[in-house]
Structures are given as C-alpha cells and as structure tokens.
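Let's do one together. I've listed all components of the complex below, 840 residues spread over twelve lines.
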Amino acid sequence: MTTVAKVIELVGESGISWDDAMQSAIREASKTLDGITGVEVVNWTASLDNGEIREYKVNMKLAFGVRGDR
Amino acid sequence: MTTVAKVIELVGESGISWDDAMQSAIREASKTLDGITGVEVVNWTASLDNGEIREYKVNMKLAFGVRGDR
Amino acid sequence: MTTVAKVIELVGESGISWDDAMQSAIREASKTLDGITGVEVVNWTASLDNGEIREYKVNMKLAFGVRGDR
Amino acid sequence: MTTVAKVIELVGESGISWDDAMQSAIREASKTLDGITGVEVVNWTASLDNGEIREYKVNMKLAFGVRGDR
Amino acid sequence: MTTVAKVIELVGESGISWDDAMQSAIREASKTLDGITGVEVVNWTASLDNGEIREYKVNMKLAFGVRGDR
Amino acid sequence: MTTVAKVIELVGESGISWDDAMQSAIREASKTLDGITGVEVVNWTASLDNGEIREYKVNMKLAFGVRGDR
Amino acid sequence: MTTVAKVIELVGESGISWDDAMQSAIREASKTLDGITGVEVVNWTASLDNGEIREYKVNMKLAFGVRGDR
Amino acid sequence: MTTVAKVIELVGESGISWDDAMQSAIREASKTLDGITGVEVVNWTASLDNGEIREYKVNMKLAFGVRGDR
Amino acid sequence: MTTVAKVIELVGESGISWDDAMQSAIREASKTLDGITGVEVVNWTASLDNGEIREYKVNMKLAFGVRGDR
Amino acid sequence: MTTVAKVIELVGESGISWDDAMQSAIREASKTLDGITGVEVVNWTASLDNGEIREYKVNMKLAFGVRGDR
Amino acid sequence: MTTVAKVIELVGESGISWDDAMQSAIREASKTLDGITGVEVVNWTASLDNGEIREYKVNMKLAFGVRGDR
Amino acid sequence: MTTVAKVIELVGESGISWDDAMQSAIREASKTLDGITGVEVVNWTASLDNGEIREYKVNMKLAFGVRGDR
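Okay, and this is what the predicted structure of the assembly comes out as:
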C-alpha cells in the first residue's frame, strides 16, 4: 500500500495571540482535509496599529495523508 | 470570524520579460482563485538557446484568502 | 499562449528505499495530475525501530504544467 | 507621494515570557517611532541560571513608515 | 583559566503547550547537566490527531559550561 | 583615517514598478543620508487587488559611509 | 511523564555506497544508544582517488529518546 | 552518451539597467562558451554616486553543456 | 610548498539513476582534471515525462588540487 | 524595568587586517553609542589590487542597550 | 571495519583573540576525546565592555572518530 | 564597453594560519589570473592530528575582471 503525504502552507491570523492564529488555521483546514498529521511554524509576524498589535500571523506548513486509492 | 490565507508556489514563463512572466502567472491564477492578496518572487531564472534568452521564468509564492465559511 | 507551472510538496514513504519512496509519490501524484515535468528532493529522512529503518521518507517538490485554458 | 518604510532589529528581554519580551520592545520603540506597521520574530532565545529561565529574549525586525516629506 | 561551552540539541515534547515542552526539556537536562547558560529554539512543530494537537514539539539548542579541570 | 560604513534596511513601495520602488527609496534616503555607496535588493514582493498589482515592494539593504570625525 | 529526545550528528563512511555509509553509522550508534527513532541526512560527500570514489560519506542527524527517569 | 553541464558564476555590470547587465554578461560569455542552456540570478546589487545609481550589478549562475567527447 | 584546491560545480545527468549521473560527471571531469579529491552533492532533481523519470540530475561541487608550480 | 537592545550592521575597513577593521568599526561606533554589549561578524571580504589585499572588510552586527527611560 | 565520526558543537572563549578561543576549546576537548580530525568555525562573536572586547567567542563544530569496537 | 567579472571558488591551505592560507591561494591565483578585484571567505576549517591543528583551510570566492575584448 502506498503512503503519500502532502504539505501545504497556510497563514493563520488572530487578534488575540499566535497560538490562537495557529489553532484557527488548523480548525479551518480540518473542515476540508482529513488526516492532518503535523504542523511546523515557519514564520511569526504581526501587524500593528498605534503601537498595539492588531493581528498576530503565523506562517505554517501542514502535512496531511493522501489515501492511496484517491 | 476566522481569517486564513493559503500560500501556493507557481512558475510563470514568458518569452518577453520576467515582469511579463509574473503577470501571466497572476492572470492565470486569478481565473480560478479569488482574493489573491500578495506575491513574492523567490527565484529568477531563464533558459537560453544560441546565446539568446528563450524563456524568462519566475518562481513565485502567491497568497490568497480562504473564506471562513468554506 | 500562457505557460504556468504549479509546484507542490509531497512526502513519499516506503519500507524499502528512498528511491522507492520517491517513485511511489510520483506514481500516486500521476493519477490525478497530468504533465508533471520535474521533481526536486529537499529532505531525506527515515524513521527507525530497534536500530532498523522502518520507513524511508523523501520530502520533494513536484512541478506540473497548468494548461492556459483551464 | 513616496512611501518608504524602514526596518530595524531589536532584542526584547523579559523575566516573564517571550510575549512580554516582544511587547516590551514594541512599547519601548513606540515612544520614539511613529507608524510602526509590522513585526517579525527572527530568533527565540533565553538565558538560564540554575536550571531556571532568567531572561526570555526575542530578536525581532520592526518596520515603520517614513513620511515622504521628512 | 579555560572557558569552554558545549552546545547540544534536544527535542522537548508536551501535550499542553510549546512553553511546557521547552520547560520539560530544560528540567530533564538539568538533572544531568550543571551550568546550563542558554537556550535557543530552532524549530516549532506539533503532531495532530483528528484536527487536534496531540504533542507540541520544540527543537532547541542548549549551551552549558564545561569546567576547565574536567 | 578610519573608514566605517553603516548598512540599513528599507522597503520601497511604488504603484508603477519594482525599479520605481527602489529609486523612490534611494531618493528618499538621499535627503537625509550623504555618501550612499551601494544597494542590495533582498526581497521582491507585491500586494494585489482584484488580480491586479497595487503596490510593488522592494526590501533593500543600503550602505553609506560614516565620516571618521562624526 | 516527560518525553525528551536528543539529536546528535554523525558521519558514516563506506567504500561501497552512501546507503551502506548510513546503515553503518546507524548500526554503530545502536550499540550504545537505545530508542533511536529517526534519522535525517544533511550532507552527501565522497572522497576520491584517481577518478574513483574511495569513501562515501553521509553527515546525518540522529534522534533518540531519553528516558524521563534518567 | 554522457551528458554533463558545468555551472559558472558571473557578475554582469551596466550603467543602464539590471536587465542590460545580465544581457551583457550572457553576450560576453557566449563568445567563448557554446551551449549555454540556463541562467539564474542570485544577487541584485548596485553602486551609487551622489544618490544616483552608477552601476547595476547582477550575480548570476550560468549553465552550459560540456560535450561528452571533450 | 603551496597547496591550493579549486572547486567547480557540475551537473551530471543519467537516464538510469542519481548514482550513475554522479559517476558520469566524475568520469567526464577526470578526462581533463587530475587530482580530484572530493565531491559534494548539493541538489537532487529529475525531469519527468508521462509520469516516468526521464533524466536523473545531480548538482555537485568537485574539488581538485592545483599544483603549486602551475 | 524594561530592557531593550538595538542591533545595527556596520562594515569596518582597514588596510592592515580583519581584526583591525573590526576594532576600527567598534571604536568609531563607541563615540556615539553607549552600552555596546556584543558583536557578531557576518561576512569577511577584501578588495585587491595587483594581487595584493588593499582593504580588509568586515560586515558585523553590533548590539547595544537602549535605556528604558529613553 | 566500520568507520564512524561524531560531530559536536563547542563554544571557545578567550580574552585575547578568536584564534586563542579556538585553540583553548580544542585543547580542552582533547583531554577527553581521542582522534579529533577536523574543526569548522560556524560563528564569530564577542562580548564588549566600555567599547573594549572582553571575550572573543568562537562557535565551532568538531569531528572525531569513534572506534568501531566501542 | 562591456564589464563582466567571473567568480571562482578556491580552497587555500596552510600549516601556519588562516591568513596565510588565504594569502597563499591569492598568490597562487595571481600567477594565472589578472585583475583579481575581491575575495570573500565562505568557510573556515582545519584538519587536526593529535590535538594539534595540522592544516588551516579557507574556502573563498574570488572575483576577477574579464576583459570585454576576450
């Protein structure tokens, strides 16, 4: 049986924290992708307004299995 | 509301210039993707024939928003 | 005519060898993608059990043409 | 009208957490810089004493707009 | 007197958070190593199950002094 | 006599082209800095709206001499 | 229970092939280390003599679990 | 039949533009090298004088085929 | 006596395997270069046709001694 | 109390040695900056004339503390 | 016979020079390790006090042979 | 007039010091190459014997002008 995984890059955003930004992106991706097995954060950024962080952003790579019979 | 962006990698090609190669890839991607917000060029290459550039190629990362209700 | 290629990242796995892991991923990808033109291996890893390699894994980038009329 | 941004590198330190280290650096920078628009964390380190983290440190890049009439 | 530090790489794991994963690895390393002076996180990953993070993992470099009379 | 150069990072933006974005940043920097000797582009990005490039952005490093008697 | 893994770097050498060089290093490491879970090849080199490869060398990172009660 | 390509690094310079700098280097290289097949730009720099770009410079890698009977 | 080595970059190609691609490039290089002492593979790629690998390609750095009396 | 450090990049030059180039840049920077705490050399280059080194150049990052009451 | 080398990372420190920092670390490592075959410097830093370098630091990788019968 | 520079990679070796290793390689290269304009050290290594450095090695990139009429 063949095992192949696909890796995609997402950017999660949140007004609360980087952890929330990551969780949001995972939750969103889980709606359409089964079998997510791992995540790696590759970049931590944020946009600011008047000295306050407005949006936390997380660039992340997400791996999910692709069934052999697909 | 959840905001998530997806990042994909494209290679645009053109016989005219690198700028045209990039514009072509963006135009092509826009046919199937809504909400492209940014682009980053990650590699500039070209193939040659008899000392003349035949194809300009641009490797680029393209970010587009994924609607929260998807 | 517009020529655009897309680049995706896959992880091939095999109990036999890295070459088999790569071939498996290509074979699997070919079922749903036409016009794969190139592959680049970006990472060679393996998981072990009791001092023996159990799974060879190959992270690879795969380029395939996207038809202009898509 | 010309739009130019400047990017500087800061190291925030805090005895509490990496988030606090980053917020401190932003707060400090905001006293002398207007128009900070973005931040990117490029390194996460900490110094220890007797097995306990004494100082969390965050190396970060900070972008702020430079007014065209400057 | 000679001052030499050694740098090792550890992977901390935790079901709770990345911070807990790092703290666990430091606590574990402190049992056998004296004089840990610094830590740098070089990779943030996680493994998932059914759309939920199961294990937070932190790859980190850890520096500790080696006594000159060793 | 001492010769020291300083290197700063700027982001030039333009609605027209990457070249214009770079020239704008250099022109802007020249108003306050004497003796700019070199420039290196480290990143080429753009923001888009409705499939059209709205702002070309160039991250660049700029070196300028610092007079020894400063 | 605490789970911590350690990562070390080895260079395997073999007169036969890169695969043999890697297997040799794993076999050697397994004599003194329990619980090796993964390996990543980070460099492929070889030394030559008279146009023939004399030694295949593989720089690899090797991860193994460290028991919590150690 | 054996197919081998050689890769060399050139720096093209021009007072006009980066494109002209690249074309010049390719034209110059074509005088002594047959079978140039590809080029990759690895660095974009420029030297300035009085706030004006004096020389555009392009560091590039150039691949050309080496005939098997050489 | 002076010892200097030169490092060049070659791309070996083969329809059979990556190992054959590397051996071919070394064999080809040995015809014109004496004293090749080492090789390092820096990139593993392949071109495909109809889901089959057509050409294995190996980018490699090759070091060879330059005699002091040259 | 808030502790923030700033990191700047300098290029020191000297006709004598790389060490002298670095010392010069530090001495020059010390005239206007208090509290320099660390330096990291990121690039070692030199310009030549007739086969002789004319200028040793050191690209370096320099960190200095910014007082909290600034 | 199996040949395996291990690579470790050390940080040598010295109040005199980077060369002395490296020599110190090698001398220290030689007390407990036989068969050190090579060293590579990966980072050159220094800490300062009142505009004077107080400690030169060298991050280095050190390779040493591991006997097959170990 | 066309200005093109070529960049080559050399490894200088010396039993005395890294500086001597670099000077040797430059002296050697100057015998066959006119117009060397710059050098960049990209790697500092050494081979050891019995805890003593036997050979200092410097990997360096060397740029030299190629006359337009060549």
